[in-house]
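in:
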């Protein structure tokens, strides 16, 4: 086959795929999250399992509020009623003007995949086009980038890119384009970045850290992007430890530590200038949860610190820890404790208060992933914390992975999923407003749009 023939075959195959997607995505008749078990059991159950539609902490952002159309767009890992073993990449929105949600849209169905590691992340560009970044897994399952066919519209998407992408973290920087942080399994879980002015053409993936393996979470503030990550000794994720942070102000061309000292990337040594705290010294494990920016423009890190990778009391105390800048150095404060390493919550920073929403109290499956969702507040910039409200009580299943929307609106402040932590179950999705009023997204819908039902206090 000559070069012209190969070009024609490639062109028409891409055209056929595009035409399929341009016909419009299917919608489904309700909000149903994916249920998953890792299958790594010990005395007190699986390392993690349950309703993981908003998993992982390394998929960010998963929701964005648009002031222009007054909608919060959100993505999650869904499942159909017929087959709960097929992951559906879902997108929808909450309309703040009407208080309603539409039937959710299936961006992509990953047949043969039931793993929420392939869950999506979200971005919205300056023109209002919605971008869905779908995670892959190692080299066996590719990741994808999709773009909406119309601004602020979730009814149709076209595939832009298929590549080796895991844990996508796209940030749209006004006037500069997209900055994308992600993971590749090149020598363990190593950290990479790429950028694009228009989302269509991307720079070559640049490795930024690779010494054993890492999980990262990131945040964008003004023109800067911050990433905080841990380290996997010998490539073993069950030994994850330490906290590191670095920042870039030029879309990943150069990186600095918190003191603006230039770093030589890719970082390749455990002891380096980006280190926030050495937990390996005290033989403690680090499960990163969130990163946000305080009123002084400084990063604040939320992490869970544990003594054992297995579920159960041997890992206690599992402490929720805040790391923040104070008097030019890193400062640690404790928020609370919980019962599982994968109890994940989100950190909110406003001028008058800091807030954490997360499953910090045991749920009906005591040692399982998640628990009851609790609202914590601090009125002194994270120095001390007070439990102010139980968002869920006497639940049927554990609630897990409370996610913070980018530019979070007070009426859709966090969202998460529930599910039985020990056995296959339905998984429902919820959101809460700033007042602490929880609403369940409709599991079944008989009309095109509906107002989510407010949970009754138990």
């Amino acid at each position: 086959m000559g070069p012209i023939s190969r070009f024609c075959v490639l062109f028409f195959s891409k055209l056929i795929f595009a035409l399929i997607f341009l016909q419009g995505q299917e919608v489904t008749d309700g909000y149903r999250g994916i249920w998953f078990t890792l299958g790594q059991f010990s005395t007190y159950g699986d390392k993690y399992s349950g309703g993981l539609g908003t998993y992982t902490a390394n998929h960010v952002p998963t929701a964005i509020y648009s002031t222009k159309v007054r909608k919060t767009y959100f993505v999650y890992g869904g499942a159909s009623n017929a087959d709960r073993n097929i992951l559906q990449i879902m997108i929808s929105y909450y309309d703040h003007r009407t208080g309603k949600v539409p039937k959710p849209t299936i961006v992509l169905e990953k047949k043969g995949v039931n793993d929420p590691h392939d869950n999506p992340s979200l971005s919205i560009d300056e023109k209002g086009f919605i971008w869905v970044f779908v995670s892959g897994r190692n080299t066996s399952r590719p990741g994808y980038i999709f773009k909406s066919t119309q601004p602020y519209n979730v009814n149709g998407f076209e595939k832009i890119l298929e590549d080796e992408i895991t844990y996508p973290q796209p940030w749209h920087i006004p006037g500069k384009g997209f900055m994308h942080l992600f993971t590749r399994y090149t020598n363990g879980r190593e950290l990479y970045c790429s950028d694009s002015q228009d989302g269509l053409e991307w720079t070559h993936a640049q490795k930024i850290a690779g010494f054993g393996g890492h999980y990262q979470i990131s945040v964008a503030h003004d023109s800067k992007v911050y990433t905080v990550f841990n380290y996997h000794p010998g490539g073993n994720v069950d030994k994850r430890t330490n906290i590191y942070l670095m920042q870039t102000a030029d879309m990943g061309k150069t990186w600095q530590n918190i003191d603006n000292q230039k770093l030589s990337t890719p970082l390749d040594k455990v002891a380096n200038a980006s280190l926030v705290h050495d937990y390996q010294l005290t033989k403690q494990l680090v499960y990163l949860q969130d990163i946000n920016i305080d009123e002084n423009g400084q990063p604040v890190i939320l992490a869970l610190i544990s003594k054992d990778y297995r579920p159960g009391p041997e890992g206690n105390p599992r402490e929720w820890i805040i790391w923040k800048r104070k008097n030019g150095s890193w400062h640690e404060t404790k928020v609370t404790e919980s019962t599982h390493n994968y109890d994940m919550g989100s950190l909110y920073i406003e001028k008058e208060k800091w807030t954490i929403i997360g499953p910090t109290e045991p749920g009906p499956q005591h040692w399982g992933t998640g628990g009851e969702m609790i609202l914590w507040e601090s009125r002194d910039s994270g120095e001390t914390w007070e439990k102010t409200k139980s968002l869920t009580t006497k639940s049927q299943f554990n609630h897990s992975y409370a996610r913070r929307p980018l530019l979070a609106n007070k009426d859709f402040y966090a969202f998460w999923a529930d599910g039985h932590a020990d056995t296959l179950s339905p998984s429902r999705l919820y959101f809460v407003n700033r007042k602490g009023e929880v609403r369940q997204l409709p599991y079944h819908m008989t009309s095109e749009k509906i107002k989510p039902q407010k949970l009754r206090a138990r």
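note: The two ends are 69 Å apart (CA to CA).
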